[in-house]
Design brief:
The chain is of the alpha/beta class. The chain has twelve helices and eight strands. Strands 1-2-4-3-5-6-7-8 form an eight-stranded mixed sheet, sandwiched between helices. Helix 4 links the parallel strand 3 and strand 4. It is elongated, with a radius of gyration of 22 Å.
């Protein structure tokens, strides 16, 4: 009887040890997979990023080439408060203007992969444009993808830089912040913070409600796994290692604090960031808001499918709301 009891204890100890090792390994893999993305080769490779954009948006090739020949597409770097070196592309409008757009890229992307939105604002609407590389992407430093949460603080700094670059002498810019996918989530997170006086409106295209919701959905879709316990453990490990967690990173909570107009864009066939997330963000936003459900569009391809309509809808929105606040006489909704 005593030997059988000891045998049972050994087996239980082995099982528990294997369970702990399995959960630890799975947690670390999930964190690596989601936040480090294999070193984010896609987001750091500028050559393949340009090739991708020219393949999907052929009109960009001639435009970018003309900008580069004129030295009009420029680089700028800043140091963050924690010492990270951050990079952005920027370009001036073809005429002197205060109108400015800050365009924020998505998950495992970089500034180059927002050149189609730069084209919309700079070529079509004659805006100044700044395109930041978020951390761990493009030419910006960093050790992980921040999923838009801590990125909001960097983007707020980039907004100040854009105002310094583009403001006509003695005045301020008239700024819109426009993000796609994770960049949309970043934009929504930015919108919940106190805003500089030169920011007038936001455009979010297919952003998620929270990092927790997005990862829970992908765990189920890609791996057939429930959120518990891996997501709980990975969130806890992210808190220990990087100082934030998946529930804290909530565009849904941030949008409730937004007091400026916002345009929501979401494809009706988006399964990566499901359409219901865009609807939830829209419902949570108080005040002035508009939404465009893009029929048949999947994730982050609304402009690709409907460039003319996309441009017209964004143009109509910013013409109404990207004006100095002391001139705003906006109806409440």
């Amino acid at each position: 009887m005593h030997k059988e009891k000891n045998k049972f204890k050994r087996i239980l100890w082995i099982v528990l040890t294997l369970l702990v090792l399995t959960l630890t390994g799975s947690t670390l893999y999930l964190q690596w997979y989601a936040l480090e993305a294999g070193g984010n080769e896609r987001g750091k490779n500028l050559e393949t990023s340009y090739a991708f954009m020219y393949e999907h948006y052929p009109f960009l090739s001639h435009w970018v080439d003309s900008l580069q020949r004129a030295n009009a597409l420029r680089d700028t770097f800043i140091l963050s408060e924690d010492g990270a070196r951050l990079h952005a592309l920027y370009l001036y409008a073809d005429t002197l203007t205060a109108h400015t757009a800050v365009a924020v890229h998505g998950y495992t992307d970089n500034a180059v992969r927002m050149l189609h939105i730069a084209y919309l604002y700079n070529h079509d609407l004659h805006y100044n444009v700044l395109l930041p590389d978020l951390r761990f992407a493009g030419q910006s430093e960093g050790d992980h993808i921040q999923m838009g949460w801590k990125d909001r603080l960097d983007v707020l700094r980039w907004m100040e830089v854009a105002n310094e670059l583009f403001a006509p002498k003695g005045s301020q810019t008239r700024m819109v912040v426009h993000g796609i996918s994770m960049g949309a989530a970043t934009t929504v997170c930015v919108s919940g913070e106190p805003q500089p006086p030169f920011v007038n409106c936001f455009v979010e295209d297919c952003g998620y409600t929270s990092v927790w919701d997005e990862y829970a959905g992908e765990l189920k879709n890609q791996f057939g796994l429930p959120a518990f316990p891996l997501l709980h453990l990975a969130s806890w490990a992210t808190r220990l290692r990087y100082g934030w967690d998946f529930r804290e990173a909530s565009p849904l909570e941030q949008v409730k604090k937004c007091r400026l107009p916002m345009l929501f864009i979401h494809g009706t066939e988006d399964t990566f960031v499901p359409t219901w997330m865009g609807d939830s963000l829209y419902a949570a936003k108080t005040g002035i808001k508009e939404i465009w459900h893009v029929e048949g569009a999947t994730h982050a391809d609304s402009y690709l499918k409907y460039a003319k309509e996309y441009t017209e809808i964004v143009k109509s929105f910013v013409e109404r709301y990207n004006i100095p606040k002391d001139m705003n006489n906006l109806p409440s909704q």
